[in-house]
Every structure is written in C-alpha cells, then in structure tokens.
Amino acid sequence: xxxxxxLGSTVDHARAQDAPASRGWYSWEQxxxxxxxxxxxxxxxxxxxxxxxxxxxxxxxxxxxxxGTKVWTRATWALSSADRGxxxxxxxxxxxxxxxxxxxxxxxxxxLCLGGGNAEEHFADVLSLRWVNGRVVAEERLPPLPEPVAFxxxxxxxxxxxIAGGVRAPGDSVAQRTFWSLxxxxxxxxxxxxxxxxxxxxxxxxxxxxxxxxxxxxxVEPHSDAAGGISYNFLTDAYRYxxxxxxxxxxxLPWPVxxxxxxxxxxxxxxxxxxxxxxxxxxxxxxxLGDRHPGFRREALLYHTITNTWxxxxxxxxxxxxxxxxxxxxxxxxxxxxxxxxVRTPVILAATQRPADTREAGFxxxxxxxxxxxxxxxxxxxxxFAGRGKSDDDFFLxxxxxxxxxxxxxxxxxxxxxxxxxxxxxxxxxxxxxxxxQASIVLVAPIVVFLYLPFFRRLRVxxxxxxxxxRFSLPVRLFGSLSFILLQLGRMAIVILLxxxxxxxxxxxxxxxxxxxxxxxxxxxxxxxGIEAVVWTDVVQVVVLVGGALLSLVLMITAVDGGxxxxxxxxxxxxxxHTFTWSWDYTTTAVWVVLVGNLLGNLVPYTADQAVVQRxxxxxxEAGAARSIWTNALLTIPAAFIFFGLGTALYVFYKQHPxxxxxxxxxxxxxxxxxxxxxxxxxxGLLIAGVFAAAMSTLSSSVNSVSSAIVTDFYRRFVPESxxxxxxxxARSLSVLLGVIATGGAVVLATWQVGxxxxxxxxxxxxxxxxxxGLFVLGIFTxxxxxxxxxxxxxxxxxxxxxxxxxTPVHFFLxxxxxxxxxxxxxYVVSVLTGGPSRSLDGLTIYTLxxxxxxxxxxxxxxxxxxxxx
Length: 870
Description:
Elements: H1 13-18, E1 26-31, E2 44-48, E3 51-55, E4 58-59, E5 71-72, E6 76-81, E7 87-92, E8 103-107, E9 110-114, E10 126-132, E11 135-140, E12 153-157, E13 160-164, E14 179-183, E15 192-193, E16 206-210, E17 213-217, E18 220-224, E19 230-234, E20 238-242, E21 246-249, E22 265-267, E23 271-274, H2 286-289, E24 299-304, E25 309-315, E26 326-328, E27 331-335, E28 338-340, E29 343-344, E30 348-353, H3 365-386, H4 392-396, H5 403-414, H6 417-429, H7 435-458, H8 464-471, H9 474-507, H10 511-559, H11 563-573, H12 591-601, H13 603-608, H14 610-616, H15 622-656, H16 670-678, H17 683-718, H18 724-752, H19 755-781, H20 787-807, H21 815-833
Antiparallel strand pairs: 1-30, 2-3, 3-6, 4-5, 6-7, 8-9, 9-10, 10-11, 12-13, 13-14, 14-15, 16-17, 17-20, 18-19, 20-21, 22-23, 23-24, 24-25, 26-27, 27-30, 28-29
Helix pairs in contact: 3-10, 3-17, 5-10, 5-14, 5-15, 5-17, 6-15, 6-17, 7-12, 7-15, 8-9, 9-10, 9-16, 9-17, 9-18, 9-19, 10-15, 10-17, 10-18, 12-21, 14-17, 16-17, 17-18, 19-20, 19-21, 20-21
C-alpha cells in the first residue's frame, strides 16, 4: 500500500543474514507481457477453462514520486491458446466497477475475487469470473463476505475457503483481525466467523494451505505513533490453523515478506515457498532513492512444516509484490505486480519446478560394489539350497529350520521395505504414538502360541486354509486361499515398486534397474532354494536391515549438535516423544484405538496369512514353532525403538540443518535421502542394501507362500494322484512365474503411472483381510458355525468394512477389528439359523482339540493339558 512509503520500520538484519540457504528449485521464464504497458498491482488472477485470467488492479499513469495519483481499472485480460496453439491476450472491461486487492481463488472453471476495493470504497461481494467464448464473464454467485475488506489474504483448504485480515475501508488507519471461512460443499450456509490468530491485526500478509492446514505469514500492522501519525510494523510472526484444533504459533520468519505473492506455493509434501516480498528495510528512504530504488527483496523463503524451520530459497529474476500466485499449465505464474514503490510492471513471471536431482552426493563406485556383492551372495544362497528339495513338501516346509531362524524370517516377512522407510518417516513427521502398535505384536504372540499354533501343527496342514476345509467346507477353503493369493499378487508389485520409487528419488538410482534387481534376484533364489533359501536369506536380510538401521542411528547421534543429550532435549522440547493420547475418540490415535486396533489387526497376518503361518510349520516340533513366534515378538521391541529412534534423530538432524533437505521428495524417502547424502561411501551402499533387503524378504515370502497355496489348495487338492516330483517342478515353475508377474507388474505401474488405481485394487482386496481372520475365529472358538455361515460372514464383513471406510470417520486402525467382529457375529447367527455344523468337530475347535496319536512331528512332547484335551 502507498501508505507505507516514507514511514519507518524495524527489520532484524542479523537474523535475516543468518538464515541458511537452500538450492534453487525453480527455473524462471517470462510469458507474453500484459497488454497494459504500465502493469497493475493488486489484480485478481486465476485460471478459467484453460486461460490465465488477470482482472482489475491499480497503477500510476503519472509516477507516484512526481505527484501522480493511483488509478484503478475494471479491465480484464485472458491469456489463452489461439488456433495455432500460440498464446495471446484478450482484453475486455468485464468488472462491474474499478477494483483491486481482492483475494483470488480458482475453483473449478471459475476465478473468484473476494472483496477488494478502490479509492472510494471497499467491497464485500464475491465476483465469479469465467472465460467463455472469447471473453471474461463476471457475475455474483456466492454469498458476500460478512463485511467489506481489501488487502486481505486467503487460501483454500480442501473444500473450504479461508480469508484473514485486511483493511475495511479506504484510508483506515487500522487493520482487521478477522478470520472467515466458506464451505464450498454448502455455500448457502454463508461465511463463518472463526477465532482469529493470536497475533496482531494485519494486512498484506501471505496465506498458504498444505496438508489440511491454513498458514498465515508476516504482513503489516499499522498503528498510531507519538506524533499523531501512522507507523507501520513489518511483521515476522507466523501461524498455522488446523480445523478442529485451532491456531498455533510457528517459528518467526527471518525477515518480513509483506505483500509477497500469495498464497505461498507448496514445494513437495512439507515445504512452502514464499517468493520475495517487502521487508520494510528501505521504506524510510523511498523518496531519496527515487528511480535508484533497487526494488523489493528478491530472495525467496522456504518453510518446512515438519521441523518448523526457515531457509533461503530461490533468487528471483525480479521481485513482484501486491500480486497473487497462480498455478497454470504446470507452472507457477506471478502476473504483473509492483516492482518498486509506485512502479508496476507488465512482466508475467513463470516458474517451473526443477527435478529433485540428488545425485550430486549419490552412489559412488564403492556403494555399487557393496550392493553388487550383496546381490551375488543372495543368489548364491539360493543355489546352495537348490539340491536339497526332493518334493513339494521340502520346497514349502523343510521341517528342520531352527526356531530362531524361523522367528527372524517371520520378522523379516512382516517388515517390508515400505515399513523400513515408513516407520522412521512417521516418527520424523509426527511422534511415537504408533509405537504402541508394535507392542501389540507381543500381546498377539501368546494368543497365537496357545490358541492357534496347535491347530496348524497337530492337524499337519501344509497351508492355513486346509484347516478351513476340515472345519467348514471346501468352498470356504478355496475362498480363503483365493483371497490370500489375490491379495499377495497385488501386494507383490507394490512391495517392489514403492521402495524402488523411493530409492530412485532419493539416490538417483535408475527406477527400472532397482525394480529388476529386486524382482529377478529374489525370484532366482526363491525358485532355486524354496523355503530354506527364503528363510535363510531372510535371516541375512534381517541382520542387514536391523544392523544398518542401528548403525545409522549411532552415526546420526554423533552428527547432531549435543550428541545423544542434545537429541533427546530437542526432541522432547518439540513433543517428538509423545506416545499416549488419552481419549475415547474412535477417530484418532487414542491409546485404546492403537492397542485394540493393532491387536486385532495383527491377528490377520499372524493367523490367516500363509506367508507367516508357513513359518510355524518349518520347525521340527510345536515347541520350536512357539519359540519362533516368541523370537519374532521379542525382536519387535528393540527394533521398534531403533526405527522410531531413527525417525526422531532424523527430525533433530534436519531441524539443525534444514538446508540439506530436498523439498520435492516424499516424506517416506527421508531415510534413504539421509543415507545417500550424509553417510560415507560404502556405508551408504550397505544401508541401501538394507532397504533392498526388506523388500526382497517380503517378496520372497509372498512368492513362496502363494506358490504353496496354489499347489496345495488347488492342484494337489484336485489332482491328488500327482507325484511329488511333478509338484516340485510345478512349485519351482510357479515361483518363477510369480516373480516375473510381480516384477513385470511393478514395471508396468512405473511406466503407466497408474499407482492410484492399483491402490484402489489393493484396498478392495484388503476388505477381505478381517473376514479371513474372522473365519479362523469362527472355526476355532465356536461349535455352532458351519460353512454357509462362514462364507456369508466373510462376505458381509467385506461389505460392512467398505461402508465403514467410505462413510464413517472410524480410525483405520480399527478396520481389522470391524472386519473380524462382523464376520464372527454374522457367521455365527447365519450358522445357527441354517442348522449348525454338519460334520464332526473332533480336533477342530479349542473344545475338541486332541494331539494326534503317534504324530511324528510331535514325538517326545508331553500331552498338553487344559482346553487342548477332550
């Protein structure tokens, strides 16, 4: 505003100079200049039907310092493609009256201009501008603001528009401290007045929206001075508003950014970029400087929403203030605006984000050598075990696996590369609330050992789904096995693709090379060595991934200021160790939601997933199987502290060194990014091998267990006269085929970029997970359930779970609980209504389980008492 000129302000220059610098993330160009040669400040701008629309604003036909007066315009301009694809401007006078300094939003094919004003009045109406048939059409379609306002700031959060601050009338000596919202899903309800931010009133602030929150940065606070005039404070405070949670104060900006192009632009999942702005440092010397005024600040500021830190970003080709930012055609456009006090420009700046190239410090020769040695070793293990299997039983079960190795294999199977990266990323992004979910695995262990394991061992089943046929019927067995197979087929491609994407983004590693390495090497050793190769490579991979994580944690502690004490102190001050949320709210991560949800959720893999159950069957006896389960459960505790500690250490490291972040990278890549950028050569290679290890461990288990389900539940069930040699050949062939399908699926998803559709497919299949676990609960813990009830219960469970996910705010931790409970209740009721069980239950429920006499697997073990004896 012109009111600033000639008046003093205070700026903390020392702090501004101390702000660390980030690399530039945008390439800049100029688009066709605005047809108005003087340019305009305060235009409303957005996109309508593919055209860039710029409307209204003000300029000085006679220079301000020569005594000129600000002139407002009602002109609109639209930049669109002509018949030959060339961009050209179209000019019209579409506004109902001259105006500027409105708050702009692009909503669908409309550019909304909220409020604004001119020299005579400020407005409360909401204009809708649309580019239609070669001209801009203006109309009032939405409810007006609660009161007139100009020079306000706004941003859209989901389907809600927010507007903050501003000036109520021309010449006002006070700013507003108002905060309003409009829900676009119910605009007839009008604007709501919300609790304002806790800081001073302001205008010319910068707004932003990211991850469901509204941000308010800087601005100008006018106030009366001792001489009876008006002084202006250029503010550096910042605030975040989360719907339902209210406001919180953020770290101050290094310098003011009043009137910077607004809203600030998201850069990646957790950064906001502010392009330039007026820092107030030259306000007092405007008249003396005249045409020698250097303009406004050209340095951008980059705010990180996780670590609450600021760094210097791009250096702009020129600083434009009092103009919005517009996302158009993959670019960020800054249309016209003010470049010096009273001087506008017709220049249209456009920024294109550069790729997140992190290869400057990426993999070196030593890293590749370490990684290559790791892959060669895994392939060699597959060939080592290749000659031991003589039948499909050997290929799938191999009863001589030590309990500790089986336990490590279960752990490795459940800890995918996605989890290997996601757990540290979650703790880095939030806190330790999710660690309670890891504790639930310890609570699940005794349930599995004492209530489930005896059925899988003593009935001598080869797949978990054989039990379902003995207890219910063949259709139930086929339903359970097919659900598992389809889910794993979908999961295998994702297990390869997601870590490959993360590694490619964080390391510069070629995406397709990463996919092929993981897929083909895993297929090779799994098809050659069967379950023995899978288990023993799992052991190696668990050592690599846990050892690598522990090494990273140690190195990170030594890298942060203050060492371990400094890390703990910084993390504690910022609430990173928060673990317990005491509430009965079922929509949040309350303690009971995390514990109960994960307790029942872990029943799915530990009782109904062949990839895990298969490990129970590889040990010599039931006691060994129990020890393998306890090994996995007890290993989970220290591993959880390591991985959550890693996330906290990452937070502290990047809070101290925010300039080392790569903003465009996804949050889940933070651990690989640290490994590649911060650790010495060789160690980086070893730790990236840990990421590969986690993915390959899960993939090998899926390949072997799906092959087991197909051969046992379908081929062997319907071709019982087949020979062991024939089934072994089929098992190996299926392993190769499944590995190729998983690898090819990952390549296709990476090429076609249809990940969102694939996620929907996986979610639909995941609806059956709770029902599948519910089938085993029905079978083991009830006497009345039958095959008809079991199938109806499982299908109903999927439908109900879909409705819960789609139409309720229930926390996703409780989804498995919903699925299990619905399956059990519906299955039991239908079973009672259809006559109860139609076959003998001897040995098939906890009330009738016996030890099979002379069972060679359990020889030498004492008879179990209690519920396991009839």
